[in-house]
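Changelog excerpt

This revision adds worked examples to the README so contributors can see how folded entries look when concatenated. The first example is reproduced verbatim below.
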Amino acid sequence: VLGSWLLRGIDRELHPLTTLQDAMDRRDAADLTPLPPALTQQAGSSDVQRLGEALDGLLARVQHSLHAQREFAGNVAHELRTPLAGIRAQAAHALAQSDPAVWRSELQGIAESEQRASRTVDQLLALARAAEGGTALALQAVSLHTLVREVLLRFLPRADALGVDLGADGLEQAVQVCAHTALIEGILNNLLDNALRYGCGQPPRITVALQVREGHAVLSVADNGPGVDAALARQLQQRWAQGDHGVRLGQGAGLGLSIVSRYAQLMGGQLVLEPAQQGSGLVASVRLPLAGP
């Protein structure tokens, strides 16, 4: 009698473990949702409950890691598009020429583009590791006016080829921000790329402006294209979202503005999309904290 009572008690203790094992065995590899509450809340042993909670914690960490990997892959594919397009254009131009001086000039440009692409991958890897590990991104004082000027100079040939008036305002003022150089470059690259693709009216005009307001630097890219309304502005900051104009053109993947928004957040800033004050167009502004004295 005593033996039967002990066996029944042991069976009651092991039954939650058996149920938990069966639930895990039936799981699809892509299913990282938490375990059903009944498996832990109705467990006959605190040890079984703790085991279930530990498994839930593991599933959550794996899910976070996979999300970070997918975000990293999407960011790399998107951020490499601009330097790779530049390399293709320079190679095509060099192949169409017979002057060795032109070949040398274009090869030098290709080498510089490759270096920027490699640096971008390294920086995105560091960013992904920081995000996955939950560590803060290392920020430092950055001369925003100088960096903006350097990026603009890289975009001038493309703007000239498209007949776009690419101008700047406020870059004569020295502005130091607490930021990350690679992220600011990524912000400007994406905003200018978007403006050149979708934001050019007649005559096509893009203006990059830098201002200091209320303890923040405000970096904005304004175009005279079709613009967006408030609802679409919120939507475009989500990954894979595109407006009607982008869908019609069949370009892009709906990542650019979401990357800009994410980069701004990592530096304690914010992306704001607003209609142009005069005429049609879009103003994309990023607020960044100023560097301390």
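The second example, added in the same revision:
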Amino acid sequence: MKTEFTDISDTQKKITIEIPSEVVDTKIDRVTSDFGRSAKIPGFRPGKVPAKIIQQRFREQILHEVTHDLIPKAVEEALRERDFDPVDTPDIHDVVINKGSALTFTATFETVPPIDPGDYETFTLRRPPISVEEDAIDKALNQLLERSARFDPVSGRLAEHGDSIVLDLTREVVSGPKSTEVPPGQLKPDTHKGVTIEIGAVANPPGFDDEMIGLDVNDVKDFTLSYPVDHATSELAGTTVRYDVKVKAIKRRIVPELDDEFAKDIGDFENLDALRTRVSEDLKKEAEQDADRQVRAELVKQLAERVTFDLPEALVSREVDRRVEEFVRRLLEQQVDPKKANINWEEFREQQRKPAQEAVCSALVIDEIARRESLSPSEQDLESELARYAERAGRPAAAVRAKLEQDGGIARVEIGLRREKAMNLLLSRAKIVTV
């Protein structure tokens, strides 16, 4: 087998391979024989069709099978000889194959050149100071108050601004872009039972609050609203909508007083001072975690700067895909349909390219450091990480491990643990200054 390598760039390579004609002919004859045992051709008994006729009748299929058997093996052997590790499956093109001639083709692929991570002691990382301001504690306490608010029924008066009104509601688009898309009589009303709407909320349709003020329990009302053409909900923009509502209840949101009784109600606190102390401690812990994240982010940035070559596009695209998939997963967890989230996905992907490139660069350097330092997770490290996976998923650890092993995911977990060990090593050797 003859091979010729060409360096297109630091990361892009091309290899031209020629497989000798005798190897090709032997494989063609073997595949021809396999076809001949089952081929049904008029005038010949099964298994008795001459090889020449088989090769004429099934030429394309035979050559296709031969190339799909010989080419991967030849590429693997050529890459092994040069110690190349492609980041993705090589692209095969310019294939020429005929009986009696050598099989020639070209394979292009991307690879990662040698990386010099440099001196581990040269990292200087900035860490923000840890401080908890009184205003931050007050804000956190007020948020606790807001979350502890209760809704008391309103009696003796009509609905007013700030009330929460419980409705049976039917909504129907009667004119505008949406109604013109559907034939007359086929546009179904949108009905909801027992929905709660706060009068004055920002998300309410334009003019809706005015229709609610002054209503009483058991009141029934119908009205129409016109949505502006630039309304945030694209399905309703530029439409006229008819509403039929029935008031089921009117409630007022009551925020408790910030005092000792409130502290006792929400937890095991003797008084408000004890609650305030706990809030201060929690804020300090959050500030420390945020400072740690900033230190790690700066380390990642400095690691990425040590990669001086253009990244393989396959690695960048893979990281962008991962980030998009992670974002979609978070939307689904929040019960948001990604298809209806009004997101320009092409623009979103493009926004992910720069952070993806930085992530890939830092990962390449970290992997090289882990290799040089012979870092690898222990079985206990792996078991602990799988236990955390299982806890987050609410499943038994054994089931999580079995699923990962089935999907080939254990290797990904081990890579993550190895990189974490390398990061901890770098952080232990870095100079960290508080600024």
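Reviewer comment on example two: The chain has a mean pLDDT of 89. The two ends are 62 Å apart (CA to CA).
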